[in-house]
Design goal:
single chain; Aspartate Aminotransferase, domain 1; Aspartate Aminotransferase, domain 2; 2 domains; five-stranded mixed beta sheet
């Protein structure tokens, strides 16, 4: 990294390598309105209205800032149903980056998961992965399969200095294959920047070892590249073999090992949309008929031509280390500052966002009262910052109706790329520290409306006591509710 990335003072300060030409006014509702809003939303941050939010750290999906080059590219879009030159430009860029001549466009990543699961997963199958993502797991289950999570033990260790906590446990993977037979495993899925355990990367060497093991047993390798740009940055920074390689060279090396690559452009490429990439025409032929059925024609797949032009430029920008370094640097700053103040966070800082350890933050709230969900609600009341629950609420109940307790209870504070200023990050840090100092006030939640599928999107909860009003009272005693 170049020296200009940081000022040398008493602390390392991440420096924005972009300037703002267009700004959007933010709202900062008073704490009384925030209390009212979170209860109207059923204590589910997904159901909050944007007008009631100051800093939206719910997700990095589809909310990243576009560059001037991306906005300019929108004007070059060729709007045709079939055979668009816009699609050709996107397909050629994807081949340049991943070396995959065959590309199936889709409207986003979960659409790719649906197609992959429908084509390859049958009842009784097992899909090993380093760690699951919510929609991936649901698509596999709907087609009769099951997920086997085989992340290394270190991956579930909240505080650690291990650089690649998203690595596959190779011994567990081989044992699973030997115990169940390769015919029961349609593919092995590797998730770059494992979302649910703190945006933790896998190493290039680990991906190569997984691919080698899969080739030995005749099993397909599938890469979820949605969070690839963060993972590439960490490979370059943390893996000795990658230090003298360009981001594009690392990408080529990784892509060479994979049979199928899919991604959500809502994350990868600062755009919207997604797609499935492959070198083998036989795999392409197996999946292509489902694109017109579920997505759109083969040359748009649910994306507008403007989105495709934006994505073409965004993928090119993803190969620029100066651009993809920005998210991880700001996340690291936020994580480091909170850790200094004694706030329990996932370390090392990963991609996607800063992750609070809700179990350690609220040790008095039992898992069946949803500590991560409670912390999301409490933080919103105290700050106007919207985070996302990544714990037990994000799991599904077992067939007997009992809870599936998450292995980790996290609150994700996403840092969308090129969106927030350092002062806004510091504001969030300040309010989190205040809440941690008053953590004993926070109580639990219980469901009032609980969908059977993806309940974290739609479910509604209520506090088990009057603890939210206690936070409001403490806040008014301690702080002036103004910027």
């Amino acid at each position: 990294m170049k020296d200009i990335k940081f000022f040398t003072t008493t602390e390392q300060i991440p420096l924005e390598l972009h300037k703002a030409y267009i700004v959007q006014k933010l709202n900062f509702p008073p704490i009384e309105r925030r209390l009212q809003a979170i209860n109207e939303a059923g204590n589910n941050s997904f159901l909050l209205n944007n007008t009631d939010i100051f800093l939206d750290m719910l997700t990095d999906s589809g909310v990243n800032a576009m560059s001037d080059r991306q906005i300019a590219a929108m004007m070059t879009a060729e709007d045709s149903y079939a055979g668009s030159a816009t699609f050709t430009r996107l397909r050629d860029k994807i081949e340049e980056i991943f070396k995959t001549p065959f590309f199936l466009p889709a409207h986003q990543g979960r659409a790719c998961e649906n197609i992959l699961s429908m084509v390859f997963v049958k009842p009784g199958d097992i899909v090993p992965m380093n760690y699951h993502f919510t929609t991936t797991k649901e698509h596999i289950a709907r087609n009769g399969g099951a997920v086997a999570e085989l992340v290394i033990d270190e991956g579930l260790n909240i505080e650690s200095d291990f650089p690649f906590k998203g690595n596959f446990d190779l011994e567990k993977l081989e044992n699973l294959i030997l115990d169940n037979g390769a015919d029961k495993i349609p593919f092995v899925r590797l998730e770059a920047g494992t979302n649910l355990i703190g945006g933790q990367p896998f190493s290039l060497q680990n991906a190569m070892d997984v691919a080698s093991l899969c080739r030995k047993h005749g099993i397909l390798t599938v890469l979820d590249a949605s969070l690839l740009q963060d993972n590439l940055f960490f490979m370059k920074q943390r893996e000795e073999a990658c230090k003298n390689m360009s981001i594009l060279q690392i990408t080529h090396k990784l892509a060479d090992e994979m049979d199928i690559i899919y991604f959500s452009a809502r994350k990868l490429g600062f755009a919207r949309g997604g797609g499935i990439c492959m070198r083998d025409k036989r795999l392409f032929e197996k999946m292509k008929e489902l694109i017109p059925l579920f997505e759109g024609f083969l040359t748009y797949g649910g994306m507008s031509v403007r989105e495709m032009e934006i994505l073409t430029v965004g993928l090119d920008e993803t190969m620029d280390e100066d651009i993809i370094s920005q998210g991880p640097q700001f996340i690291k700053f936020m994580t480091d500052e909170l850790k200094k103040a004694g706030v329990p966070v996932v370390t090392p800082a990963g991609g996607l966002g800063c992750h609070l350890d809700a179990k350690a933050f609220l040790p008095h709230v039992p898992q069946d009262k949803y500590p991560a969900g409670s912390l999301v609600s409490a933080l919103y009341i105290a700050s106007g910052v919207r985070g996302m629950e990544r714990g037990t609420i994000s799991e599904a109940r077992k067939n007997d109706g009992s809870e599936t307790f998450a292995q980790v209870e996290l609150v994700r504070l996403a840092v969308p790329r090129r969106v927030f200023t350092l002062s806004q990050i510091k504001f969030a840090i300040d309010r989190i520290i205040w809440l941690h100092e008053h953590r004993d006030l926070v109580g639990g939640l219980e469901f009032t409306e609980e969908p059977k599928i993806l309940r974290f999107f739609f479910g509604r909860l209520k506090p088990v006591s009057d603890w939210q009003n206690d936070i409001v009272k403490a806040f008014k005693n301690d702080l002036h509710d103004s910027l």
